[in-house]
Structures are given as C-alpha cells and as structure tokens.
Amino acid sequence: MGRNACAKQPMQSIEYLIARRTASSDSESRTSVMSRIATVTVALGVAAMVLTLSVVYGFREQIYADLRGFGSDCRVIDVSSLSAVEKPLPLSEELLGRISSTEGVEWVAPYLTAEGMAKSGDNVLGLQIKGIGKEYNTAWWQSRLIEGSLPDVASEQRTKQIALSRTTASLLDVEVGDRVEMLFVEGDERPRRDAFKVVGLYHTGFEELDRVVALADERDVRRVANIAGDNVSGYDVGIVRMEDADKVAALLDEEIFLEAQGNEGFISTVAAPLAQRHPVVFDWMQAHTVIARAVIIIMMVVLLFNMAAAMLIMVFDRIGMIGALKAQGMRTAAIRRIFLYRAALIFVRGAVWGNVVAGVLIFVQWRWQVVELDPVGYMLSVLPVDVGWWWLGLNVLALVVAVAVMLLPSMVVARIRPEVTLRYKL
Length: 426
Description:
Blueprint (H helix, E strand, L loop, with lengths): L1 H6 L6 H12 L5 H41 L2 E5 L14 H8 L4 E16 L2 E10 L6 H6 E4 L12 E5 H7 L6 E6 L7 E11 L4 H4 L2 E5 H7 L9 E6 L5 H16 L8 E5 H4 L1 H39 L1 H9 L4 H37 L6 H4 L11 H16 L1 H4 L7 H4 L5
Parallel strand pairs: 3-8, 5-7
Antiparallel strand pairs: 1-9, 1-10, 2-3, 2-6, 2-9, 4-7, 5-8, 6-7
Helix pairs in contact: 2-13, 3-11, 3-13, 3-15, 4-9, 11-13, 13-15
C-alpha cells in the first residue's frame, strides 16, 4: 500500500528540489536583496508590457470597430469620392447580387449621404446625414445606442426620424423626442429645409465622427437632399473576416468591371477598403504599434539585465555548494539547471504580481473609464483597453526569453573548480 502511494507521488528533478531549497534558505542571506530587486523589476516590466499592449490593441480594436460601423469594411464608391464629396452611383440590383455572392462578403446594402446644417433654437451645427434602408445591417448602430431607438426604416411611410450622437445632441441642446431642423443648400438652388424628430442617441467615443454623423431613413435623405432617380451615394459591404478586406476588395473590383461593361455609371467605380479611405488613421495606429514595440524591447532589456545580475550574485554566493556538488559527481549541466530553475522561480513570482497589477488597472479602466483623452489628439474621448490571447502569449514568450538569456550567466558554473571552492563555507 505504502509502495503504491509513493509511486503515485509526482516526480520532481533533484535540480528543481535544490533550487527551491536554496531559494528558501537565501531569504535571510545577502542574495535575497538582489532577488527581491529582480522580482520587483520583473513585476514592473511585465505590468508595463501588458498595459502597453492592452492600450495599443484597445486603440486598434476601438477605432477599427467604429470606422467599420460608420463606413463598413469595404465601400463601393466612385473613385473621385475618395478625396471629395461622394458622387452618386446608379442603384443596380444586378451589382447587389454580384457583390452578395462574392466570397468573403457577409452583407451589402446601398446608402445615401447628404450634408447640411442642423438647427435647434440658436444652436447651429454642420451635420452629415446617412440614409439607410431596411436591408442595411444595423447591428453596430444598435450596439452603440444609449437612449431611444434607431429610425424606423422598415415602415411603409416616411417617418422623418433621426438618430444623433450624444455629442451632437449636447451641442444642439436637444433630447430624444425633440425636433431638429435641417437646412440643405446646393449651388444656386433655393435652400431646402425639413424637420426631423430625434428618436435615439448613440455614443462611440470617436468624437471626430460622432459630432458630424447622424442616421436617418434613406427616403427622407433622398427627398430633402433632392437626389435624383434611384441614385445612391454608394454600397456598404460587410466582410466576414476583416483581415481579408484587401482580398475581397480585389474580387469586388472584378465584379464592378463586369457590371461597368453594360452600365456606364460604374466606369469609375472602385471597391475601397477602410485602409484606403482612411490612410492617415491607419498610419497613426501603425506609429503607435512601433512605439509599443520599442517600449516592450526596452522593458525586456531592463528586466533581463536585472535577472542576469541576480543570477551572478546567486552563483557567486553558492560557490561552496557548487564545488561540493561537483565533487560528488553532479554534472555541470545539472548544476546550471539549478540556477536556471532559480531564475524561472524569480520570473514567475514577479510575473504573477505584474499580471495582477496590470489586470486590476485594466479592469478599473474598462469598468469606470477613469482615464480620459483629448479627442482632438487621440480621436477617442476615453483611453481604450483590450485583452485577448496575446496576454498569455506575452507571458510565455517573456518566460522563454528570460530563461534562454539566463543560459549565459549560468555558464560561470562551468569555470568553478571543486578543488578550489571546497574551502568556501557551504
């Protein structure tokens, strides 16, 4: 019975057992100070790296999600619309069918846009109204709705409803249920005006777009903006995998080319993914990614330097033990593993504390949004944070790199000779 119980005990290497024993006995020696410094350095380094990546991924996810919501993954528009006001395109059911059957496309719907002046009392604000129909995917808009509802675009009659951002509503001093007067002026034509009822408020935090974009029924936008016939401003295309945006855009260009053979209205039409329509924003996010990489490299260098110093001190403080182990026949590689285990224990202890601190700070920011930003410089009004599988990958990578780099200072063990070191106190 006793023999079977012993057989079930987990087997641990002698090197690991010695590493743990020396770690506990060093708690009262001179080595403990350097070990604690190394542990604190690891904790601070890991926390800094986790927070850095959390913010970078947060910016990327938040800004990309908002850009997708406002303008979809890919947009079929006239090529001149990339740098100017959108030029109308004909509404083609055939092209809608071609796009919807393209590999990688999740949904497609036409839309209308019109720019005018919104007025409420003495408050006046420039506003772009986006008109959508019942076939439009409004899941993103629903997720950003904070009060009221979206315009009823499925009703048989025009409802003259509009959804504003919280920022726009504040600037116009209106609430859900109030009316906003819209004024449209085009060339020398007589100004056209109409009143819309505010039925909902949304908020994304992307102030640059929040303050200028409103949502309405495409029939109301067509009427008030005097858009002729069945023309539309473009086609919004949702893509199954955002990573495939460029690939899907290339496939859509082929479908547009085929459509243009029989419809001259699509001769100068292209499929433009987000990166092509917002190059400045994507360059800005890429610059933040480069900065994040630099921060991670610097923190890793500092972390590894302190761990290497701690390992050298541990080795020199245990010269007598190393000589005794060699004299008893333990191989140099096994003795090196003892100190590598010590380094791993220091890293794990520091990494646990670092992850706990970073996790608490990320949760506080996610829950209460205590850190606010200037939307003029950062586009977002609140510091975004995000977590994912990269968190686990970062910890594993840091551990592997730390232990691998510790191989160099552990090589000092090979130069220690038993006949010289046995005179040291064990």
